[in-house]
Amino acid sequence: MHQLLIVDDQPDLVDDLADMIPWEQAGIIKVHKAYSAQEALEIVAVNPVGVIITDIRMPGASGLDLIEQVRATWDKIRCILLSGYEDFDYAKRALQNRVTDYLLKPCEDEELIGAVQRAVKDIEAEWEAISSYQNAMQSIRQNRPALRNHLLMDLLEGSRVPEDELAERLELLEVPVQSGRPYCLMLLRLEDYFDRYRGSDVPLMEYAVFNMAEELFADTFHLWQVKDKHGYMVFLIQPKSEPGTGEAGLKDTAENKASRLQHSVKQFLKGTVSVLISRWHPFPQELSPLYDESVVQFRQHIGSDRELLLTIADSPEQRAQSVNSLTHLYDPPMLVHLLEAGQWNALDEKMDAIFDELEQKWSHSHEHILETYFMIVSAFSYSIHKSKRLMSELMGEEYRKLVSGPQFHTIQQLRDWSAGILETYKRTMAEEAKDSRSSLVRQVQDYVHHHLGEASLQSIAGHVFLNPSYLSKVYKLETGEGISDYLFRLKMEQATYKLRNTNEKIYEIAEGLGYLKTSYFIKLFKDKYGMTPQEYRDRLA
Asked: Where would I find the Response regulatory domain in this sequence (predicted)?
Protein backbone atom coordinates (compact mmCIF):
# COMPACT_ATOMS: atom_id res chain seq x y z
CA MET A 1 0.00 0.00 0.00
CA HIS A 2 1.06 3.60 -0.63
CA GLN A 3 1.17 7.06 0.97
CA LEU A 4 -0.13 10.28 -0.62
CA LEU A 5 1.01 13.89 -0.09
CA ILE A 6 -1.34 16.81 -0.99
CA VAL A 7 0.34 20.22 -1.39
CA ASP A 8 -1.42 23.60 -1.76
CA ASP A 9 -1.10 27.03 -0.17
CA GLN A 10 -4.84 26.95 0.58
CA PRO A 11 -5.27 24.89 3.79
CA ASP A 12 -9.04 24.51 3.39
CA LEU A 13 -8.58 22.97 -0.05
CA VAL A 14 -5.86 20.62 1.23
CA ASP A 15 -8.01 19.53 4.18
CA ASP A 16 -11.03 18.91 1.98
CA LEU A 17 -9.06 16.83 -0.50
CA ALA A 18 -7.38 14.83 2.27
CA ASP A 19 -10.45 14.18 4.38
CA MET A 20 -13.37 14.01 1.97
CA ILE A 21 -12.11 11.70 -0.80
CA PRO A 22 -12.01 7.85 -0.25
CA TRP A 23 -8.33 7.47 -1.13
CA GLU A 24 -8.30 3.82 -0.01
CA GLN A 25 -10.03 3.05 -3.32
CA ALA A 26 -6.80 4.08 -5.02
CA GLY A 27 -4.63 1.95 -2.74
CA ILE A 28 -3.65 4.80 -0.39
CA ILE A 29 -3.26 3.97 3.31
CA LYS A 30 -2.07 7.35 4.60
CA VAL A 31 -2.52 10.96 3.44
CA HIS A 32 -0.06 13.73 4.37
CA LYS A 33 -0.80 17.48 4.13
CA ALA A 34 1.58 20.31 3.23
CA TYR A 35 0.85 24.00 2.69
CA SER A 36 4.10 24.96 0.96
CA ALA A 37 6.81 23.41 -1.16
CA GLN A 38 9.29 23.56 1.72
CA GLU A 39 6.92 21.77 4.10
CA ALA A 40 6.29 19.16 1.41
CA LEU A 41 10.02 18.48 1.05
CA GLU A 42 10.34 18.02 4.82
CA ILE A 43 7.50 15.48 4.83
CA VAL A 44 8.91 13.55 1.88
CA ALA A 45 12.30 13.40 3.58
CA VAL A 46 10.95 11.37 6.51
CA ASN A 47 7.98 9.48 5.01
CA PRO A 48 7.76 6.88 2.19
CA VAL A 49 5.51 9.01 0.02
CA GLY A 50 4.61 7.41 -3.30
CA VAL A 51 2.35 10.04 -4.91
CA ILE A 52 2.27 13.86 -4.66
CA ILE A 53 -0.68 16.04 -5.71
CA THR A 54 0.43 19.68 -5.90
CA ASP A 55 -0.95 22.99 -7.11
CA ILE A 56 1.25 24.81 -9.61
CA ARG A 57 0.95 28.34 -8.25
CA MET A 58 2.12 28.76 -4.66
CA PRO A 59 4.00 31.59 -2.92
CA GLY A 60 7.75 31.08 -3.01
CA ALA A 61 8.56 27.83 -4.73
CA SER A 62 5.91 26.71 -7.22
CA GLY A 63 4.57 23.23 -7.69
CA LEU A 64 6.91 22.76 -10.65
CA ASP A 65 9.87 23.85 -8.51
CA LEU A 66 8.79 21.31 -5.91
CA ILE A 67 8.59 18.56 -8.49
CA GLU A 68 12.06 19.41 -9.85
CA GLN A 69 13.54 19.13 -6.34
CA VAL A 70 11.66 15.89 -5.65
CA ARG A 71 12.91 14.42 -8.93
CA ALA A 72 16.50 15.28 -8.00
CA THR A 73 16.36 13.14 -4.85
CA TRP A 74 13.34 10.80 -5.01
CA ASP A 75 13.13 9.76 -8.63
CA LYS A 76 10.42 7.14 -8.18
CA ILE A 77 7.74 9.41 -6.62
CA ARG A 78 4.80 10.03 -8.97
CA CYS A 79 3.65 13.67 -9.25
CA ILE A 80 0.20 15.01 -10.24
CA LEU A 81 -0.20 18.73 -11.05
CA LEU A 82 -3.32 20.80 -10.39
CA SER A 83 -3.70 24.05 -12.34
CA GLY A 84 -6.41 26.69 -12.46
CA TYR A 85 -5.93 27.34 -16.19
CA GLU A 86 -4.18 25.89 -19.24
CA ASP A 87 -0.69 27.19 -19.81
CA PHE A 88 1.61 25.84 -22.52
CA ASP A 89 4.83 26.73 -20.69
CA TYR A 90 3.62 25.02 -17.51
CA ALA A 91 2.59 21.95 -19.47
CA LYS A 92 5.98 21.84 -21.19
CA ARG A 93 7.88 21.99 -17.88
CA ALA A 94 5.56 19.37 -16.45
CA LEU A 95 6.39 16.99 -19.30
CA GLN A 96 10.10 17.65 -18.85
CA ASN A 97 9.79 16.63 -15.18
CA ARG A 98 7.84 13.50 -16.06
CA VAL A 99 4.62 14.55 -14.31
CA THR A 100 2.21 11.62 -14.16
CA ASP A 101 -0.99 13.68 -14.67
CA TYR A 102 -1.91 17.33 -15.37
CA LEU A 103 -5.42 18.16 -14.09
CA LEU A 104 -7.36 21.41 -14.47
CA LYS A 105 -9.28 22.90 -11.56
CA PRO A 106 -11.94 22.34 -10.65
CA CYS A 107 -11.84 18.57 -11.06
CA GLU A 108 -14.17 15.83 -9.87
CA ASP A 109 -13.24 13.45 -7.08
CA GLU A 110 -13.36 10.58 -9.57
CA GLU A 111 -10.75 12.32 -11.72
CA LEU A 112 -8.38 12.66 -8.77
CA ILE A 113 -8.96 9.09 -7.63
CA GLY A 114 -8.39 7.85 -11.20
CA ALA A 115 -5.17 9.86 -11.52
CA VAL A 116 -3.85 8.49 -8.21
CA GLN A 117 -4.84 4.95 -9.20
CA ARG A 118 -2.87 5.29 -12.43
CA ALA A 119 0.12 6.61 -10.50
CA VAL A 120 -0.07 3.73 -8.00
CA LYS A 121 -0.27 1.15 -10.80
CA ASP A 122 2.71 2.79 -12.47
CA ILE A 123 4.70 2.55 -9.22
CA GLU A 124 3.77 -1.10 -8.71
CA ALA A 125 4.65 -1.97 -12.31
CA GLU A 126 8.04 -0.30 -11.94
CA TRP A 127 8.81 -2.10 -8.69
CA GLU A 128 7.69 -5.39 -10.18
CA ALA A 129 10.07 -4.83 -13.08
CA ILE A 130 12.85 -3.87 -10.67
CA SER A 131 12.12 -6.93 -8.57
CA SER A 132 12.17 -9.18 -11.64
CA TYR A 133 15.45 -7.65 -12.78
CA GLN A 134 16.93 -7.98 -9.30
CA ASN A 135 15.75 -11.58 -9.09
CA ALA A 136 17.30 -12.28 -12.48
CA MET A 137 20.56 -10.66 -11.43
CA GLN A 138 20.51 -12.55 -8.14
CA SER A 139 19.95 -15.79 -10.04
CA ILE A 140 22.82 -14.92 -12.36
CA ARG A 141 25.08 -14.15 -9.40
CA GLN A 142 24.17 -17.43 -7.70
CA ASN A 143 24.67 -19.46 -10.88
CA ARG A 144 27.52 -17.47 -12.39
CA PRO A 145 30.10 -20.32 -12.22
CA ALA A 146 27.75 -22.75 -13.97
CA LEU A 147 26.76 -20.13 -16.56
CA ARG A 148 30.43 -19.41 -17.29
CA ASN A 149 31.03 -23.13 -17.75
CA HIS A 150 28.07 -23.50 -20.11
CA LEU A 151 29.09 -20.51 -22.22
CA LEU A 152 32.67 -21.72 -22.60
CA MET A 153 31.54 -25.26 -23.39
CA ASP A 154 29.09 -23.93 -25.99
CA LEU A 155 31.86 -21.91 -27.65
CA LEU A 156 34.25 -24.89 -27.60
CA GLU A 157 31.60 -27.07 -29.23
CA GLY A 158 31.01 -24.60 -32.04
CA SER A 159 28.10 -22.39 -30.95
CA ARG A 160 28.16 -19.11 -32.88
CA VAL A 161 27.47 -16.00 -30.78
CA PRO A 162 27.47 -12.52 -32.41
CA GLU A 163 30.44 -10.47 -31.25
CA ASP A 164 28.39 -7.75 -29.51
CA GLU A 165 26.22 -10.34 -27.76
CA LEU A 166 29.30 -12.30 -26.69
CA ALA A 167 30.83 -9.12 -25.23
CA GLU A 168 27.62 -8.48 -23.25
CA ARG A 169 27.51 -12.03 -21.91
CA LEU A 170 31.18 -11.94 -20.94
CA GLU A 171 30.60 -8.69 -19.05
CA LEU A 172 27.44 -10.01 -17.37
CA LEU A 173 29.22 -13.17 -16.23
CA GLU A 174 32.34 -11.22 -15.23
CA VAL A 175 34.61 -13.17 -17.56
CA PRO A 176 37.69 -10.94 -18.10
CA VAL A 177 38.46 -12.29 -21.59
CA GLN A 178 38.50 -9.68 -24.38
CA SER A 179 37.81 -10.05 -28.09
CA GLY A 180 40.78 -9.59 -30.39
CA ARG A 181 43.37 -10.37 -27.69
CA PRO A 182 45.54 -13.53 -28.10
CA TYR A 183 44.50 -16.69 -26.29
CA CYS A 184 45.39 -20.38 -26.17
CA LEU A 185 43.79 -23.50 -24.73
CA MET A 186 45.38 -25.64 -22.05
CA LEU A 187 44.01 -29.16 -21.57
CA LEU A 188 44.80 -30.96 -18.34
CA ARG A 189 44.29 -34.64 -17.49
CA LEU A 190 44.43 -36.14 -13.98
CA GLU A 191 46.37 -39.41 -13.87
CA ASP A 192 47.89 -42.15 -11.71
CA TYR A 193 47.22 -41.38 -8.04
CA PHE A 194 43.90 -39.67 -8.81
CA ASP A 195 42.53 -42.91 -10.28
CA ARG A 196 41.84 -44.22 -6.79
CA TYR A 197 39.31 -41.47 -6.10
CA ARG A 198 35.66 -42.22 -6.69
CA GLY A 199 32.38 -40.37 -6.55
CA SER A 200 32.32 -37.06 -4.71
CA ASP A 201 36.09 -37.07 -4.07
CA VAL A 202 36.98 -36.50 -7.74
CA PRO A 203 35.35 -33.03 -8.00
CA LEU A 204 37.20 -32.02 -4.83
CA MET A 205 40.53 -32.93 -6.41
CA GLU A 206 39.59 -31.14 -9.63
CA TYR A 207 38.58 -28.07 -7.62
CA ALA A 208 41.96 -28.10 -5.90
CA VAL A 209 43.75 -28.29 -9.26
CA PHE A 210 41.61 -25.44 -10.66
CA ASN A 211 42.57 -23.30 -7.66
CA MET A 212 46.26 -24.10 -8.08
CA ALA A 213 46.09 -23.11 -11.74
CA GLU A 214 44.34 -19.83 -10.87
CA GLU A 215 47.01 -18.99 -8.32
CA LEU A 216 49.96 -19.85 -10.58
CA PHE A 217 48.67 -18.08 -13.70
CA ALA A 218 46.96 -15.10 -12.01
CA ASP A 219 49.89 -12.67 -12.17
CA THR A 220 50.12 -12.87 -15.97
CA PHE A 221 47.00 -14.50 -17.42
CA HIS A 222 43.24 -14.48 -17.15
CA LEU A 223 41.86 -18.04 -16.89
CA TRP A 224 38.44 -19.30 -17.96
CA GLN A 225 37.96 -22.99 -17.25
CA VAL A 226 35.52 -25.87 -17.66
CA LYS A 227 35.53 -29.66 -17.42
CA ASP A 228 34.59 -31.20 -20.76
CA LYS A 229 32.75 -34.41 -21.66
CA HIS A 230 36.05 -36.29 -22.05
CA GLY A 231 36.95 -35.62 -18.43
CA TYR A 232 39.64 -33.09 -19.39
CA MET A 233 40.03 -29.81 -17.53
CA VAL A 234 40.05 -27.12 -20.24
CA PHE A 235 41.51 -23.66 -19.59
CA LEU A 236 41.19 -20.69 -21.94
CA ILE A 237 44.27 -18.56 -21.24
CA GLN A 238 44.60 -14.89 -22.19
CA PRO A 239 47.37 -12.46 -21.13
CA LYS A 240 46.25 -9.62 -18.88
CA SER A 241 48.22 -7.07 -20.90
CA GLU A 242 49.47 -6.82 -24.46
CA PRO A 243 52.46 -9.17 -24.78
CA GLY A 244 55.70 -7.39 -25.56
CA THR A 245 57.53 -10.55 -26.52
CA GLY A 246 55.06 -11.87 -29.10
CA GLU A 247 53.66 -15.38 -29.37
CA ALA A 248 57.00 -17.01 -28.58
CA GLY A 249 57.15 -15.19 -25.25
CA LEU A 250 53.56 -16.11 -24.42
CA LYS A 251 54.25 -19.74 -25.29
CA ASP A 252 57.33 -19.90 -23.06
CA THR A 253 55.55 -18.21 -20.14
CA ALA A 254 52.51 -20.48 -20.39
CA GLU A 255 54.64 -23.63 -20.63
CA ASN A 256 56.70 -22.54 -17.63
CA LYS A 257 53.58 -22.02 -15.53
CA ALA A 258 52.11 -25.34 -16.72
CA SER A 259 55.30 -27.08 -15.61
CA ARG A 260 55.05 -25.39 -12.21
CA LEU A 261 51.42 -26.53 -11.99
CA GLN A 262 52.48 -30.15 -12.59
CA HIS A 263 55.10 -29.80 -9.86
CA SER A 264 52.58 -28.28 -7.40
CA VAL A 265 50.02 -31.03 -8.04
CA LYS A 266 52.66 -33.68 -7.39
CA GLN A 267 53.94 -31.90 -4.27
CA PHE A 268 50.65 -30.99 -2.60
CA LEU A 269 48.10 -33.48 -4.00
CA LYS A 270 50.52 -36.39 -4.46
CA GLY A 271 49.27 -37.01 -8.00
CA THR A 272 50.33 -36.37 -11.58
CA VAL A 273 48.74 -34.46 -14.43
CA SER A 274 49.44 -34.30 -18.15
CA VAL A 275 49.11 -30.96 -19.93
CA LEU A 276 48.67 -29.92 -23.57
CA ILE A 277 48.95 -26.29 -24.71
CA SER A 278 47.49 -25.22 -28.05
CA ARG A 279 48.62 -22.62 -30.55
CA TRP A 280 47.67 -18.95 -30.04
CA HIS A 281 44.86 -17.07 -31.83
CA PRO A 282 42.94 -13.81 -31.35
CA PHE A 283 39.84 -14.47 -29.23
CA PRO A 284 37.38 -15.93 -30.19
CA GLN A 285 38.78 -16.93 -33.59
CA GLU A 286 39.27 -20.67 -34.29
CA LEU A 287 38.07 -21.56 -30.78
CA SER A 288 36.07 -24.67 -31.66
CA PRO A 289 38.52 -26.06 -34.29
CA LEU A 290 41.42 -25.41 -31.92
CA TYR A 291 39.63 -27.30 -29.14
CA ASP A 292 38.88 -30.26 -31.44
CA GLU A 293 42.50 -30.34 -32.59
CA SER A 294 43.73 -30.21 -29.00
CA VAL A 295 41.48 -33.09 -27.92
CA VAL A 296 42.63 -35.25 -30.85
CA GLN A 297 46.29 -34.55 -30.06
CA PHE A 298 45.78 -35.19 -26.35
CA ARG A 299 43.97 -38.48 -26.92
CA GLN A 300 46.89 -39.70 -29.02
CA HIS A 301 49.16 -39.47 -25.99
CA ILE A 302 48.51 -41.69 -23.01
CA GLY A 303 50.65 -41.18 -19.93
CA SER A 304 51.75 -44.27 -18.02
CA ASP A 305 53.99 -43.38 -15.10
CA ARG A 306 55.11 -40.10 -16.68
CA GLU A 307 53.74 -36.57 -16.73
CA LEU A 308 53.35 -35.16 -20.22
CA LEU A 309 53.75 -31.50 -21.18
CA LEU A 310 52.85 -31.12 -24.84
CA THR A 311 52.21 -28.36 -27.33
CA ILE A 312 50.26 -28.87 -30.53
CA ALA A 313 53.03 -27.40 -32.63
CA ASP A 314 55.65 -29.89 -31.59
CA SER A 315 53.90 -32.95 -30.20
CA PRO A 316 53.82 -34.95 -33.48
CA GLU A 317 57.53 -34.43 -34.12
CA GLN A 318 58.54 -34.92 -30.51
CA ARG A 319 56.81 -38.25 -30.29
CA ALA A 320 56.93 -39.47 -33.87
CA GLN A 321 57.31 -43.22 -34.02
CA SER A 322 56.70 -45.93 -36.58
CA VAL A 323 53.26 -47.43 -36.13
CA ASN A 324 52.84 -51.15 -35.70
CA SER A 325 50.24 -53.54 -34.36
CA LEU A 326 50.25 -55.23 -30.97
CA THR A 327 51.75 -58.72 -30.92
CA HIS A 328 50.48 -60.44 -27.77
CA LEU A 329 46.90 -59.33 -28.37
CA TYR A 330 46.68 -61.60 -31.45
CA ASP A 331 49.10 -64.41 -30.57
CA PRO A 332 47.35 -67.75 -29.92
CA PRO A 333 45.66 -68.75 -27.75
CA MET A 334 43.24 -65.85 -28.21
CA LEU A 335 41.48 -64.20 -25.29
CA VAL A 336 38.09 -65.50 -26.37
CA HIS A 337 39.34 -69.12 -26.47
CA LEU A 338 40.84 -68.89 -22.98
CA LEU A 339 37.58 -67.43 -21.66
CA GLU A 340 35.56 -70.22 -23.26
CA ALA A 341 37.82 -72.90 -21.79
CA GLY A 342 37.91 -71.27 -18.35
CA GLN A 343 41.71 -71.41 -18.30
CA TRP A 344 42.06 -68.66 -15.72
CA ASN A 345 45.80 -68.94 -15.05
CA ALA A 346 46.62 -68.86 -18.75
CA LEU A 347 44.21 -65.95 -19.17
CA ASP A 348 45.94 -63.97 -16.41
CA GLU A 349 49.29 -64.57 -18.09
CA LYS A 350 47.88 -63.49 -21.45
CA MET A 351 46.49 -60.24 -20.01
CA ASP A 352 49.80 -59.48 -18.28
CA ALA A 353 51.69 -59.98 -21.54
CA ILE A 354 49.31 -57.68 -23.44
CA PHE A 355 49.55 -54.84 -20.94
CA ASP A 356 53.30 -55.23 -20.48
CA GLU A 357 53.69 -54.78 -24.25
CA LEU A 358 51.43 -51.71 -24.17
CA GLU A 359 53.46 -50.06 -21.42
CA GLN A 360 56.83 -50.90 -22.96
CA LYS A 361 56.12 -50.03 -26.61
CA TRP A 362 52.94 -47.95 -26.85
CA SER A 363 52.70 -45.92 -23.65
CA HIS A 364 52.00 -42.79 -25.73
CA SER A 365 49.41 -44.24 -28.11
CA HIS A 366 45.73 -43.78 -27.40
CA GLU A 367 44.91 -45.74 -30.55
CA HIS A 368 46.66 -48.85 -29.24
CA ILE A 369 44.80 -48.43 -25.96
CA LEU A 370 41.54 -48.38 -27.92
CA GLU A 371 42.61 -51.41 -29.96
CA THR A 372 43.20 -53.38 -26.77
CA TYR A 373 39.98 -52.13 -25.20
CA PHE A 374 37.81 -53.15 -28.15
CA MET A 375 39.44 -56.59 -28.37
CA ILE A 376 38.86 -57.25 -24.66
CA VAL A 377 35.25 -56.06 -24.83
CA SER A 378 34.66 -58.23 -27.91
CA ALA A 379 36.05 -61.34 -26.20
CA PHE A 380 34.01 -60.80 -23.06
CA SER A 381 30.78 -60.00 -24.91
CA TYR A 382 31.09 -63.16 -27.05
CA SER A 383 31.76 -65.38 -24.03
CA ILE A 384 29.02 -63.83 -21.91
CA HIS A 385 26.41 -64.10 -24.65
CA LYS A 386 27.45 -67.69 -25.39
CA SER A 387 26.80 -68.54 -21.74
CA LYS A 388 23.21 -67.29 -22.21
CA ARG A 389 23.80 -64.15 -20.15
CA LEU A 390 23.54 -60.43 -20.87
CA MET A 391 26.49 -58.13 -20.34
CA SER A 392 24.26 -55.67 -18.49
CA GLU A 393 23.33 -58.40 -15.96
CA LEU A 394 26.87 -59.58 -15.37
CA MET A 395 28.71 -56.24 -15.40
CA GLY A 396 26.21 -54.06 -13.54
CA GLU A 397 27.48 -50.48 -13.13
CA GLU A 398 30.51 -51.20 -15.32
CA TYR A 399 28.15 -51.89 -18.24
CA ARG A 400 26.73 -48.37 -18.04
CA LYS A 401 30.28 -47.03 -18.21
CA LEU A 402 30.89 -49.31 -21.18
CA VAL A 403 27.88 -47.89 -23.04
CA SER A 404 29.11 -44.31 -22.54
CA GLY A 405 32.39 -45.19 -24.29
CA PRO A 406 35.96 -45.75 -23.10
CA GLN A 407 37.17 -43.18 -20.56
CA PHE A 408 40.68 -44.50 -20.01
CA HIS A 409 43.43 -41.91 -19.79
CA THR A 410 46.18 -44.35 -18.75
CA ILE A 411 47.16 -47.93 -19.46
CA GLN A 412 46.82 -48.69 -15.75
CA GLN A 413 43.18 -47.58 -15.81
CA LEU A 414 42.41 -50.02 -18.62
CA ARG A 415 44.40 -52.75 -16.89
CA ASP A 416 42.48 -52.29 -13.64
CA TRP A 417 39.14 -52.17 -15.46
CA SER A 418 39.92 -55.37 -17.39
CA ALA A 419 41.05 -57.16 -14.23
CA GLY A 420 37.80 -56.17 -12.51
CA ILE A 421 35.65 -57.43 -15.38
CA LEU A 422 37.62 -60.69 -15.54
CA GLU A 423 37.19 -61.23 -11.80
CA THR A 424 33.44 -60.66 -12.11
CA TYR A 425 33.29 -63.11 -15.02
CA LYS A 426 35.26 -65.76 -13.09
CA ARG A 427 33.02 -65.38 -10.05
CA THR A 428 29.86 -65.64 -12.13
CA MET A 429 31.08 -68.72 -13.97
CA ALA A 430 32.09 -70.35 -10.67
CA GLU A 431 28.66 -69.63 -9.18
CA GLU A 432 26.94 -71.01 -12.26
CA ALA A 433 29.12 -74.13 -12.15
CA LYS A 434 28.25 -74.57 -8.48
CA ASP A 435 24.57 -74.11 -9.24
CA SER A 436 24.89 -76.66 -12.02
CA ARG A 437 26.56 -79.20 -9.68
CA SER A 438 23.90 -78.59 -7.03
CA SER A 439 21.22 -79.26 -9.61
CA LEU A 440 23.00 -82.44 -10.66
CA VAL A 441 23.16 -83.66 -7.04
CA ARG A 442 19.43 -83.04 -6.66
CA GLN A 443 18.73 -85.03 -9.82
CA VAL A 444 20.84 -87.95 -8.56
CA GLN A 445 19.24 -88.00 -5.13
CA ASP A 446 15.73 -87.72 -6.54
CA TYR A 447 16.37 -90.66 -8.87
CA VAL A 448 17.83 -92.77 -6.06
CA HIS A 449 14.90 -91.93 -3.78
CA HIS A 450 12.41 -93.30 -6.32
CA HIS A 451 14.53 -96.20 -7.66
CA LEU A 452 16.60 -97.37 -4.69
CA GLY A 453 16.16 -101.06 -5.50
CA GLU A 454 17.56 -100.83 -9.03
CA ALA A 455 19.79 -97.77 -8.65
CA SER A 456 23.47 -98.15 -9.52
CA LEU A 457 26.23 -95.82 -10.70
CA GLN A 458 25.61 -96.95 -14.28
CA SER A 459 21.83 -96.46 -14.17
CA ILE A 460 22.15 -93.04 -12.49
CA ALA A 461 24.76 -91.88 -15.05
CA GLY A 462 22.43 -92.98 -17.83
CA HIS A 463 19.58 -91.03 -16.26
CA VAL A 464 21.55 -87.74 -16.13
CA PHE A 465 23.40 -88.39 -19.43
CA LEU A 466 26.91 -88.21 -17.96
CA ASN A 467 29.95 -90.44 -17.94
CA PRO A 468 29.85 -92.59 -14.74
CA SER A 469 33.40 -91.69 -13.76
CA TYR A 470 32.81 -87.94 -14.28
CA LEU A 471 29.48 -88.12 -12.45
CA SER A 472 31.10 -89.83 -9.48
CA LYS A 473 33.82 -87.16 -9.27
CA VAL A 474 31.37 -84.26 -9.50
CA TYR A 475 29.04 -85.79 -6.93
CA LYS A 476 31.85 -86.40 -4.45
CA LEU A 477 33.25 -82.90 -5.07
CA GLU A 478 29.88 -81.38 -4.23
CA THR A 479 28.78 -83.65 -1.33
CA GLY A 480 32.00 -85.16 -0.02
CA GLU A 481 30.53 -88.65 -0.50
CA GLY A 482 30.88 -91.02 -3.47
CA ILE A 483 27.73 -92.25 -5.21
CA SER A 484 28.45 -95.91 -4.33
CA ASP A 485 28.88 -94.95 -0.66
CA TYR A 486 25.68 -92.91 -0.84
CA LEU A 487 23.74 -95.86 -2.31
CA PHE A 488 25.10 -98.28 0.30
CA ARG A 489 24.26 -95.90 3.18
CA LEU A 490 20.69 -95.39 1.96
CA LYS A 491 20.15 -99.14 1.46
CA MET A 492 21.38 -99.97 4.96
CA GLU A 493 19.22 -97.21 6.47
CA GLN A 494 16.22 -98.56 4.53
CA ALA A 495 17.01 -102.10 5.73
CA THR A 496 17.08 -101.10 9.41
CA TYR A 497 13.82 -99.20 8.95
CA LYS A 498 12.06 -102.24 7.51
CA LEU A 499 13.52 -104.55 10.16
CA ARG A 500 12.10 -102.26 12.85
CA ASN A 501 8.75 -101.38 11.33
CA THR A 502 7.63 -104.23 9.01
CA ASN A 503 7.20 -107.99 9.09
CA GLU A 504 8.94 -108.50 5.75
CA LYS A 505 11.18 -111.55 5.52
CA ILE A 506 14.93 -110.99 5.35
CA TYR A 507 15.07 -112.23 1.76
CA GLU A 508 12.19 -109.88 0.80
CA ILE A 509 14.05 -106.89 2.23
CA ALA A 510 17.21 -107.95 0.37
CA GLU A 511 15.35 -108.26 -2.94
CA GLY A 512 13.63 -104.91 -2.43
CA LEU A 513 17.01 -103.25 -2.00
CA GLY A 514 18.40 -104.82 -5.17
CA TYR A 515 20.45 -107.63 -3.61
CA LEU A 516 19.92 -110.78 -5.67
CA LYS A 517 21.63 -113.00 -3.09
CA THR A 518 20.30 -112.81 0.45
CA SER A 519 23.58 -114.12 1.83
CA TYR A 520 25.47 -111.18 0.30
CA PHE A 521 23.01 -108.74 1.84
CA ILE A 522 23.42 -110.42 5.26
CA LYS A 523 27.23 -110.17 4.97
CA LEU A 524 27.10 -106.45 4.09
CA PHE A 525 24.65 -105.75 6.91
CA LYS A 526 26.82 -107.57 9.45
CA ASP A 527 29.93 -105.71 8.26
CA LYS A 528 28.05 -102.44 8.76
CA TYR A 529 26.31 -103.05 12.11
CA GLY A 530 28.22 -105.99 13.67
CA MET A 531 25.21 -108.30 13.63
CA THR A 532 22.99 -110.08 11.11
CA PRO A 533 19.62 -108.65 10.09
CA GLN A 534 17.79 -111.27 12.16
CA GLU A 535 19.91 -110.54 15.23
CA TYR A 536 19.13 -106.81 14.75
CA ARG A 537 15.38 -107.56 14.63
CA ASP A 538 15.53 -109.97 17.59
CA ARG A 539 17.38 -107.41 19.71
CA LEU A 540 14.69 -104.82 19.03
CA ALA A 541 12.01 -107.35 20.00
From this structure: 3-120
Please provide residue 225's backbone torsions phi and psi, each rounded to the nearest 5 degrees.
-125, 160
Asked whether the beta carbons of 240 and 221 are under 8 A apart, the reply is yes
Count structural domains, the chain. Answer: 4
Q: Closest Cα partner for 45 from 64, 32, 55?
A: 32
Residue partners of 337: CB distance under 8 A and separation at least 6: none
Contact 340, 386 (CB under 8 A): yes
Where is the domain boundary, 318, 351, 383?
318
- Domain, as residue range, for 82: 2-140
Residues 351-406 pLDDT 10s = 999 999 888 877 667 778 888 888 888 888 888 887 777 877 777 777 766 766 66
Q: 288-320 in b/e burial notation, b at 16+ Cβ within 10 A?
A: eebbeebbebbbebbbbeebbebbbeebeeeee
- 318-333 per-position pLDDT tens digit: 444 445 677 888 877 8
For 269, 302, 381, the CA distances from 205, given in Å and listed in that order, are 8, 20, 34
State if pTM tops 0.85. no
Q: Would you mind telling me the total number of residues written for the chain in this entry? A: 541
d(CA 170, CA 129): 24
Pair 293, 354 in one domain = no
Q: What is the pLDDT of residues 243-293, one digit of tens each?
A: 666 677 888 899 999 999 999 998 888 888 889 999 999 999 999 999 998
User: Could you tell me the CATH number of the domain that includes residue 134?
Assistant: 3.40.50.2300
Q: Find the distance separating the first CA and the last CA of the chain, reported in whole Å.
A: 110
Q: Measure the CA–CA gap between 491 and 174, rounded to whole angstroms.
A: 90
Angle subtended at Cα 74 by Cα 69 and Cα 76, rounded to the nearest 5 degrees: 125
